[in-house]
Structure formats: structure tokens, C-alpha cells
Amino acid sequence: MRRIATTIAVATVVVATGAMAGGVPALAASHGAKATTASSFYLSLGDSLAQGVQPNDQGVSVETNQGYPDQLFTALHMGNPTLKLVKLGCPGETTGTMINGGICTYSAGSQLKQAAAFLAQHRGHVQLVTIDIGANDLNPCLVLTNLNDIVKCLQGVFPTIQANLTTIMKTLTSISGSSGGPPIIGMAYYDPQLANWLKGTTADKTLAKDSVALAQGFNSLLGGVYKGFGAKVADVFTAFHTAAPFKTRVTLPAFGRVPKAVGYICMYTWMCAAPPVGPNIHANQLGYGVIANTFLNTYLG
User: CA distances (Å), 142 to each of 95, 153, 191, 198, 215, in order?
Assistant: First the structure.
């Protein structure tokens, strides 16, 4: 109950301070912007989740101020009024483009180079770094419908993700040297493919079930790299009840009794929303609140 209360409290503060917007808030600045001279910073890195992307009424994915970095910042700011939020996340970013650039524009050339420059410039003044990256690397595999083809595709993609994430973490952790750097928390992803269950066919339900094991393998790979560099992992996979037994059911008003994991992916994301808004893989405001709460508990734990 404490975890739920914290999530609701954080989300409520964000609602009070600003509704959904097409761009990032003033504190976040643009992708390549430099932070102001404040005493401490929270640096958010990653993909669209790190920019709080959600679909608007026309179903267009836009950056908002309701993402997990914004909600986590709200909670952290209560204990540190000098804290400033810097969001460098890039919608569509892969581990490769994070290193080399090519999607979002950064004055340093890529998100990783921009982050490295920021950490070097503000050495000793960064309170926390969070990162979620790697999900977009899987996109070529997730458009496939045959499980064997998906597995074969992932076997080819996983080594690249591991190598790229190793480069990313090596760069981030090498900036501070022996002086000791800020804590870094990586994220274990939720599983949007669970929503396939609602399509109703045997093949779709099988794909939904099998996607859980694939997501576990993916998160295990990410977690291994993060922990290898001394970073903690925010277990969003578990916070979204992704591995709940499929025989455990909950009721969704529009769909009736469904597996618990499916119910929560519908509750926390836009995957089950009706067109044109959905289906959309991004978390909704409540889902981002759960992610923020998971990061917060990991940071404090």
C-alpha cells in the first residue's frame, strides 16, 4: 500500500504542476540544451520513455511532462530544492544511435557524448543518472509473427545490444574516475506484447505468453551489463506484474476476465486503448508513475 500511495502522490503533484504538452517542460529543456548553474542535477537518459512520450488525441506520439523522469524529479526535489532535471532522452533511440547519433540533434553529436560532456562539466554535482535503452533495438524482431523467427532474430540482435550497452556504461562510469561518480540506475522493461492476448486467437495468446520469457531474457541481458558496472536496476518488469501466472485473472471493463499480466499492461500503457489513440506501447501517466516509484525505491533502497 505504501508503494501505491507513493505512486499516486507523485502523479498527483505532476498533474497539479502541468498537464500534457507537446514539448518538454522548461526544466527539461531541449535534447541538446545545457543546464543552468544549479547545485545539483538529475540526468535522465534513454529512449522515448525517458521523454515521457504518450499518444495525443489523434494518436500521434508526443513528448510530455508526465513521464517517469518528471515524476521521479518531483519526488526527489522535495528532499533537495536545488535539484534540476535534465532530460536527454531521444524517442526512437537505439543503443547504436545513442553512441553514434542520427535521430535527435545534440550539440556534442550524440546522446552519449552529450551526457559525457554534461557529467564532466558538472562533476560532483549530479545526484542521479537514470537510463532506459535497448527496446528499440528489438523492433525488427517484434514485427515478426512466427515465434521461431522472432527467437532467431533476437539471437542476432542481443549480442549487439550487449556490446553497445557495455560501451555506453563504460563511457558513463569512466567520467568521474577515482573521485566516484553519481549513482546510475538502469531499467528493466515491461512487455507491451502481452496485449496480443486480447486479439483472441490461439496464435496471439501463445505469442503473448511466450513474450514474457523473451522479455525476461532481454532484461537479464540488460541487467547483467548494468550490474557489471556497479549500477542498480529498477525492476519495472516486476512492478508491471509481467510474470504473473496466466491462470491468475483480473477483470477489465471492456474485455472481461483476462490474465493479470495482460490486465496491468492495459492499465499502465496505451496498448489496449481504442484507435486512434491506441494501441501504443508507451506508458500512460499512471504507468509512468509506477515506473517513477520503482526508480525511487531502487534509489532509496
Answer: 17, 9, 11, 17, 11
* Reported pTM: 0.87
Cα gap 284→266, rounded to integer Å? 10
The three-class DSSP label of residue 183 is coil
- Which helix or strand (DSSP H or E) is residue 84 part of? strand 83-87
Instruction: Count the Cβ atoms, other than its own, within 10 Å of residue 145.
Output: 11
DSSP state, 270? E
What is the domain partition of the chain in residue ranges? 2-300
54-76 residue pLDDT tens: 999 999 999 999 999 999 999 99
Q: Read off the pLDDT of each residue in 188-202 and give the average, rounded to a whole number.
A: 96
Point out which residues pair with 132 in neighbouring strands: 46
Supply the CATH classification number for the domain 2-300: 3.40.50.1110
